[in-house]
Amino acid sequence: MGLGAIYMDNLRMSATRDAQNPQHNFDEILRKAGASSADRSGAVLRPMEAPIDKEDELFKLCMELETFIAKNLLTGMRSTVQKSGLVDDSFAGKIYEDMLYDEYAKDFTKNAGFGLAEQAYRQLKNYY
After folding, report:
1. Are residues 99 and 76 in the same domain?
2. DSSP SS3 for 76
3. How many helices and strands, by DSSP H and E, does the chain display?
4. 42 domain residue, yes or no
5. 85 and 119, same structural domain?
6. Is 118:52 a contact under the CB 8 Å cutoff?
7. How far is the C-alpha of 60 from the C-alpha of 43, rounded, in Å?
8. What is the reported pLDDT for 102?
């Protein structure tokens, strides 16, 4: 039996086992994720327990990413609503509206607590 046949046979057995017990596959993934997040002391940190240094440059970049995504969401939502005429369609009006949505996005990410920046920070801190 060649290596390809052995690989395919193991793959079929694994797929059958996972289909019979899908919780096993999920538990295995969680176990591996927990084992990979061990800190230097050997203690396992769960992702939500990892400390966040809000003065770190990486965290500030993650906040900018969250602000960028929030602005894109706001702009996308705004394009679905009819214009009221409050802001004119001139070049200056478009710049004003863009700056307004920049500020909305900054306020939302600072006050709403979406959590995207925190998750990105925790994920990237392991690799940065």
Report:
1. yes
2. helix
3. 5, 0
4. no
5. yes
6. yes
7. 27
8. 93
Q: What is the DSSP letter of 50?
A: S
Considering its fold, how many domains does the chain have in total? 2
* Cβ contact 107:77 at 8 Å: no
Question: Can you give the pLDDT at residue 7?
Answer: 55
- Are 57 and 32 contained in the same domain? no
Report d(CA 106, CA 45) in Å as an integer: 30
Same domain, 29 and 57: no
pLDDT of residue 34: 61
Residues 32 and 54 in one domain: no
Give, for all 128 residues of the chain, the pLDDT tens digit.
565 566 566 556 665 655 555 555 666 666 666 655 554 455 555 555 667 888 889 999 999 999 999 999 999 998 888 877 777 788 888 898 889 999 999 998 988 878 899 888 988 887 65
Distance of CA 100 to the CA centre of its chain: 25
Note down the domain range covering 61.
49-125
pTM over 0.70: no
Q: Same domain, yes or no, for 56 and 98?
A: yes
CA-based nearest residue to 102, from 82, 72, 61, 60: 72
3-state SS, residue 71: helix
